[in-house]
Amino acid sequence: MTGNTQSKSAQPAISRSNDEVLRRFPFDDTQDMDAARRGFMGTAPSEITTADGRVVWDLEAYGFLAQDCPPTANPSLWRQSRLVAEHGLFEVVEGIYQIRGFDLSNMTIVEGERGVLVIDPLISSETAAAGLALYRSHRGERPVTGVLYTHSHVDHFGGVKGVVTDEEVAAGVPVLAPEGFLEHAVSENVYAGTAMARRAAYMYGAALPKGPQGQVGAGLGQTTSTGSVGLIPPTLDITRTGQTETVDGIRMVFQLTPGTEAPSELNIHFPDHAALCMAENATHNLHNLLTLRGAEVRDPRVWARYLTEAITLFGDETDVAFASHHWPTWGRERAMGFLAEQRDLYAYLHDQTLRLINQGMTPLEIAEVIEMPPALEKAWHTHGYYGSVSHNTKAIYQRYLGWFDGNPAHLWEHPPVETAKRYVEFMGGAQEVLRRAHESFAAGDFRWVAQVVNHVVFADPVNAEALSLQADALEQLGYGSENGTWRNFYLMGALELRRGPVGTPTVTSSPDFLRVLTLDQLFDALSIRVDGPRSWDADITVRWNVNGSGPVTLRLYNGVLTHTAGSGRAVADPDVEVTLDEADLRSVLLGLLPPSELAGHATITGDAAKITELLGHLSAPDPDFAIVTP
Fold first, then answer.
1. pLDDT at 580
2. Is residue 492 predicted with pLDDT exceeding 70?
3. Percent helix, strand and coil across the chain, each rounded to 5?
4. Which of 82, 184, 454, 504 lies 20 to 30 A from 418 at CA?
């Protein structure tokens, strides 16, 4: 791509908008900063690296946030980022400690009789190991005697191998998780993992330069670390609310909260500490109901109900509420007030969006008119630093009614490139669109510039003027965004329009994910990769006789790869039959063992070439697909 690659200054309209934010909200309120720094015990050297020296996290990268907020950032987001960037070891209460600012999430360490229980060991093994080392430098060389995952998102388990090994777990160190954890962790990071990772690169902005004109944070945390992601399967499932478990003398009472921030999630009460861990169900921001990286739509109705249940179950025995992001809330009255306001936040969004849906309003219309109650808006922790009122209302619409807004004009629209070409032609050609878009830019209507110039970019993706103007408009929208993930999306779009693709810094579909897939899940993952049109005429059947677990028949027919266990009417006669161990089958399916070398590991009857032919119909996903260009 061509064009100016440099960031620009804030335009007057954005500067005025950001100045208005300063006047509107109580920036002299220091309660959150006091809480974010409370219990600080120390921190670590600035860089966390891999064994070969690659930096995966820089603790000092956000030092610029100590400055006053510049015009190129929303002051409310700047304030939030300054709070989240506080890093080090913090005491929550005696016996419970948190590593904060070492990754997108927090790692919590609870002291037991012999060692420690580690809760949510970050994204990368390197950051988790550095956090545990920091804890030990202050509290002694206590072994890890248990691990707990609060939910199925990678920032809460990916660094597990930085705190415990497979061998230690096999020897008896328990790994606790909510029921359904493994299924959802795998499906999110494997089935749609390539697309999610690519969009997450935009959402968290890990490739953006850190600074006042670049990445300042993501609201929930600063960004994602870029180290080694792993997974050790749970050894103990939490299956019901009220279930109690004791690990190394640490008593815990669990509340299951499926369908809230994650499809598999739980809260934890520690009765001996009068402490309540809210996982990611109550943090110091409005959360996502549909994350911009993509996921299942979350249910704000049940989210609100589970927050009410948490208050009911644990409110009278809780003196501090903490979570796997942000800072704790101390004091029984303040903690329960915090949870109640978080509850009202999701309930209000749900109820009012449905009220407007039933008045016939569309997602875009609802997002423009809905306003939060003043009592909620004045609380800093309800602000849309990570989720937003705008995209959450659209998520609620999607949850209930799907993508279609009911207008038949939207039922069969042209795809983006064909739409763009027609729009640009109707509007008088690219030069006329750009001439008028420059006028809109000068007038401060950056939303319209981004919307209309996008058509020119998709109609003519080598138009340097269009690429440059679109980048400038997205950049200004980023400068004005209170929401950290919106800012990152806008600035990543500007970056790639100016410089071309920058890749996907954090890859979550690691070998550990593939290793813990059940065979059913592995076959499902392969079926997603079948190139359907190229496979329409194929008819290939391979039977795998897996030692110890029986036969599984794979058939590629009509462009669909199906798998059937056992025998029966659904099972076709095989072209080739292979008897082998499950480990060798996995190696073949994952491309680690070439079919040509299979004979040395298996007994093969029939046409062995059919195995290669079958695997040849699989396509590879593209981890760097275009987003802001066609």
1. 94
2. yes
3. 45, 15, 40
4. 504
Separation of CA 115 from chain center? 31
**CA of 403: how far to CAs of 292, 362, 376, 410, in Å?**
15, 10, 29, 10
Alpha helices in 427-463 (DSSP H): 430-442, 446-459
| Beta carbons within 10 angstroms of residue 414's beta carbon | 11
Would strands 320-322 and 275-277 be described as parallel, antiparallel, or unpaired?
parallel
Give φ, ψ of 48 to 5 degrees.
-110, 125
Q: With beta carbons less than 8 A apart as the criterion, state whether 121 and 237 touch.
A: no
Residue 25 and residue 298: Cα distance in Å, rounded?
Answer: 29
The enclosing H or E element of 250 equals strand 250-256
Instruction: Please determine, for residue 1, whether its predicted confidence score (pLDDT) is greater than 50.
Output: no
- Which residues are CB-contacts of 485 (< 8 A; sequence separation ≥ 6)? 203, 204, 218, 219, 292, 386
225: closest CA among 45, 59, 78?
Answer: 59
Task: Give the Cα separation of 625 and 501 in Å (integer).
Answer: 8
Give the tens place of pLDDT for each residue, 265-306: 999 999 999 999 999 999 999 999 999 999 889 999 999 999
- The position carrying tokens 């920036």 is 27
**400 — alpha (psi -120 to 50), left (phi > 0) or beta?**
alpha
Neighbouring C-beta atoms of residue 280, cutoff 10 Å:
25
Query: Is the pTM here over 0.70, yes or no?
Result: yes
The DSSP element (H or E) to which 88 belongs, if any, is: strand 88-93
What is the predicted pLDDT for the residue at 623? Answer: 86
Q: Give CA–CA dist 513/206, Å, rounded.
A: 22
| Residue 572 predicted with pLDDT over 90 | no
Amino acid at site 167: E
- Secondary structure of 307-366 as H, E, C letters: HHHHHHHHHHHCCEEECCCCCCEECHHHHHHHHHHHHHHHHHHHHHHHHHHCCCCCHHHH
Dihedral Cα 283, 289, 292, 297, nearest 10 deg = 140
Cβ pair 261, 287 in contact under 8 A: yes
Number of other CB atoms surrounding residue 294 within 10 Å: 15
CA distance 237 to 244: 11
Q: What percentage of the chain reaches a pLDDT higher than 70? A: 98
**Pairing between β-strand 116-119 and β-strand 107-111 as defined by DSSP bridges:** antiparallel
- Rounded to whole angstroms, the Cα distance separating 473 from 85 reads 28
Neighbouring CB atoms inside 10 A of 594's CB total 12
Nearest to 213 by CA among 4, 64, 82: 64
Residues 512/230, Cβ–Cβ less than 8 Å = yes
Residues 6+ positions from 606 with CB-CB distance below 8 Å: 574, 575, 576, 577
Residue 591 gets the label, from left (phi > 0), alpha (psi -120 to 50) or beta, of left
Range 42-69 average pLDDT: 95
- Strands across the sheet with 576-580, in order? 560-565, 550-557, 539-546, 576-580, 603-606
The torsion angles phi and psi of 236, rounded to 5 degrees, stand at: -140, 120
Distance from chain centroid for Cα 74:
23
The tokens of 521 are what?
Answer: 């899940």
Distances in Å between the Cα of 83 and the Cα atoms of 62, 131, 132, 369, 388 are 11, 19, 22, 30, 19
